[in-house]
Amino acid sequence: CKVHKICVLPGDGIGPEIMEVATKALSVAGGKEGETFEYKQCLIGGAAIDATGKPLPDETLEVAKQSNAVLLAAIGGYKWDTLPSAQRPERGLLAIRAGLNAFANLRPAIVPRQLADSSPLKRELVEGVDILIVRELVGGIYFGQPRGFGTNEKGERIGYNTDVYSEPEVERIARVAFEAARKRGKRLCSVEKSNVLEVSQLWKEVVIRVGADYPDVELSHMYIDNAAMQLLRNPKYFDVIVTGNIFGDILSDEASMLAGSLGLLPSASISGSGPGIYEPVHGSAPDIAGKDMANPLAMVLSAAMMCRYDLAIPKVADRLEGAVNAVLDAGLRTADIYKAGTPNTRLVKCSEMGAELMKHL
Amino acid sequence: CKVHKICVLPGDGIGPEIMEVATKALSVAGGKEGETFEYKQCLIGGAAIDATGKPLPDETLEVAKQSNAVLLAAIGGYKWDTLPSAQRPERGLLAIRAGLNAFANLRPAIVPRQLADSSPLKRELVEGVDILIVRELVGGIYFGQPRGFGTNEKGERIGYNTDVYSEPEVERIARVAFEAARKRGKRLCSVEKSNVLEVSQLWKEVVIRVGADYPDVELSHMYIDNAAMQLLRNPKYFDVIVTGNIFGDILSDEASMLAGSLGLLPSASISGSGPGIYEPVHGSAPDIAGKDMANPLAMVLSAAMMCRYDLAIPKVADRLEGAVNAVLDAGLRTADIYKAGTPNTRLVKCSEMGAELMKHL
Ligand SMILES: CC(C)[C@H](C(=O)O)[C@@H](O)C(=O)O
Ligand SMILES: CC(C)[C@H](C(=O)O)[C@@H](O)C(=O)O
């Protein structure tokens, strides 16, 4: 039992509302297991731009680095959409990922049994889907140099970016993915575009080499276009997927939709050494901000992932996840996951969902 | 009425079988409208590698350039999978696209009413979906320089590619997309990742500028990750999508799956000046090659697109499309689209599908 230092970043839109529920739930669940949390709240995203002019103030990164883990709600909103892109809220997100070297983004794509009917896919295809997407998060085309604007030899204006991976970058993310696969279904699918791109050829080669250390994990390879297709055709084929930054961005959002809603999907971005970042997959939903309509459950499940990974207090994670299951079983639904006419369900506000959650902790 | 010179590239796997059906159907349909076709058959892909050592022999490109249009079936197979990637069949495809400057890849994602139940998505979501994806095909990260392998400043081995677009490259594909949207639902969605990538910022800026010439077309913008999600959540939202080479590769394959099968999906890759390339979306299916099991309909529909676009003989296209509809209405299904137990359908071989098709022409 110790004090866990959590850097709390409510961010924008519905962020503060859902963060309030999640930290309360975390404190209560931790209390039952004798764990204590110390929260330091900092600015990021639009809120930080308004207060300091920067989407990631130095102080926020400092506090994050000194903490055991970072809980982040959501960033962005219409208000900042017209800023030049180098000054937008998203930059804060990219900067904190890079600043903490949070290179491994783990995004479970699970279809919760209580909501299997909300999937756009037919029930028989998605029931039981349980995919873990491991996305490289601090390399690839998001950060590759050179990048920018210029002119080509014909004098035409161009925009360009570099997609690049080094051997050690691929190796460390591959190891995270193999380790994860080993603890689950023991199947890993590496996704790239090696029939066209050199960066993907290096990726594939390194993944195969690392795979030699994991003979118990079945490794397969798939082109990104085919993977985008197979996620629809037969999502149960997948156990763990490992892929680069931009392909992971696309695939994990596509896979999220298998659940029909982002309302229950958490994510972890871990560094292996320092603190990781735990955040829901959904965005800041500026249209419903401040209306007590948000769904706090993905934020709570992100806190659970934090307990499991960085804080190594799995019992607290179990409690949080158990409570989320209990409120869903009890039929409570926020607007995003409510479907009129479904028997034994009831539309609730964010605060009520929070209050009910506490009862089940 | 004139003689249309067609460069015929059967390629690998099931390619020759489906090409035979398509050229026969084309000749018959053309005959009824007084149009004549002259076919010159050339090598590409694995077949070309075996015969000449090159996936795109110079002679093939020469014949293609002298023709009015290129009909391509499919390339690739297990046999060539172990070759170094610079010598693989796919390179032939990339080379002929670049060689003919076929910059605009048009891929309709339509869910044929006869097969709406084969979609992995719920019927109410896909019924009536009619999306046209306009993918830039000879630029972006597929062809950007510099590319290759090297070492970074830490001495680590790297693989890298450059994603780059120039203003004129974006402008010409945007015009194709706006023109297409104008003839359809008048809605165009440009897909990029401008919140992270400079190449996407240029893309978006140019698309907006070109859009000023098309006030009758409603232009929207979407990030690629969100587009991958919305294609599942609400595919009917989309009319025409315009996007770069790699994003188009991914999105068009994902969108293909909305139909449940690739068996009916054609594509056109047009240059605006010289001959375009017309090919089915599906691959060479080496596992069923030579077994008379392939579905020739996407190849026939590709020939129809050729008649509509490059050859400007829409009446022949109408005849081909009408015949495809007729055989589907008659319940004929090749193995890939056959679902045991569906009333009034019958499993047929490739040759039988071809013969029935001729009857309806
Ligand atoms: C907001 C954006 C920069 C970010 C990304 O592309 O990584 C988001 O889409 C995500 O997946 O977390
Ligand atoms: C075979 C491959 C090089 C090709 C591509 O990526 O363009 C294919 O996936 C396609 O979409 O036509």
Explain what the structure shows.
The structure is a homodimer of 361-residue chains. Chain A is of the alpha/beta class and 361 residues long. The first copy, chain A, has two domains: 1-100 and 275-361, Isopropylmalate Dehydrogenase (3-Layer(aba) Sandwich); 125-130 and 139-258, 3-Layer(aba) Sandwich (Isopropylmalate Dehydrogenase), CATH 3.40.718.10. Chain A is built from twelve helices and 14 strands. Chain A has helices at residues 15-32, 45-52, 58-66, 89-99, 123-126, 167-182, 198-211, 224-233, 245-256, 297-308, 314-329, 350-359, and strands spanning 3-11, 36-41, 69-74, 104-110, 130-136, 148-151, 157-166, 187-192, 218-223, 240-243, 266-270, 277-280, 332-333, 346-347. In chain A, a hairpin with a 6-residue loop joins strand 11 and strand 12. In chain A, helix 2 crosses helix 4. The longest helix of chain A is centred in the first third of the chain and has 18 residues, at 15-32. In chain A, 55% of the residues are buried. The model of chain A has no long low-confidence stretch (mean pLDDT 96). At the A-B interface, strand 7, helix 7, helix 8 and helix 9 of A face strand 7, helix 7, helix 8 and helix 9 of B. Strand 7 (157-166) of chain A pairs antiparallel with strand 7 of chain B. The structure holds 3-isopropylmalic acid (IPM) (2 copies). One 3-isopropylmalic acid sits between chains B (90, 93-94, 249) and A (195-196, 225). Chains A, B: Its EC number is 1.1.1.85.
